[in-house]
Q: What sequence folds into this?
């Protein structure tokens, strides 16, 4: 069962996803497309910027048209470090560090900034997620790996 933090995260109206790939099979792109399907305002951030297959990519967090309520970091930890300060300064209410996108250095940085992120696979807890992600969630929760 998702925690209150996870439920509040997905109740947000606007999301920014850092590190969205142009490849539809990439996890960050799947997260983006799933949030769009839920009717959320979703901003894809990728260094290339521009429009690709109907998705507007912003080249930086600062270039977004609004401050998102929730942010998902989906880029390598060494790339995420440069944007964490911007995310913290923006006052985003919720931050999720996607599985594989953080290391001890990034966790130390977010801790120093007073950020308490949710960590792990964002798709496992997304409302309406496909069956196989719900199975992964059930297994994680069974063995104590659920998100708090």
A:
């Amino acid at each position: 069962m998702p925690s209150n933090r996870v439920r509040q995260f997905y109740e947000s109206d606007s999301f920014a996803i850092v590190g969205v790939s142009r490849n539809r099979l990439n996890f960050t792109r799947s997260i983006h497309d799933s949030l769009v399907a839920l009717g959320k305002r979703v901003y894809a951030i990728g260094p290339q910027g521009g429009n690709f297959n109907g998705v507007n990519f912003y080249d930086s967090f600062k270039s977004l048209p609004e401050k998102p309520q929730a942010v998902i970091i989906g880029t390598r930890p060494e790339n995420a470090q440069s944007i964490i300060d911007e995310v913290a300064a923006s006052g985003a209410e919720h931050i999720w560090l996607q599985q594989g996108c953080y290391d001890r250095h990034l966790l130390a940085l977010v801790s120093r900034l007073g950020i308490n992120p949710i960590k792990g696979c964002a798709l496992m807890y997304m409302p309406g997620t496909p069956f196989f992600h719900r199975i992964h969630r059930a297994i994680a929760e069974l063995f104590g790996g659920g998100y708090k």
